[in-house]
Amino acid sequence: MTTLIDKYNRHLNYLRISVTDRCNLRCIYCLPRGFIPKLSHEDVLSYEEILRLVRLGVRLGISKVRITGGEPLVRKGIYDFLRALSEIRGLSDISLTTNGVFLTQNIDKIRAAGIRRINISIDSLNPGKFEYITGRNCFEPVWDGIMSAYEAGFAPIKLNVVALNGINSDELTEIARLSFSYPFHIRFIEYMPIGKSELGTRNAKFEMLAPEIIKRIRSLGKLNPVENAMNDGPADRYKFEGAKGEIGIIRPLSHHFCYKCNRLRLTASGQLRACLLSDHQEDLKTPLRKGFSDKQISDIFVKTISMKPFKHQLSLRHSDKVSSQMSAIGG
Ligand code: SAM
Question: What is the chain's mean pLDDT, rounded?
Answer without folding.
Answer: 91
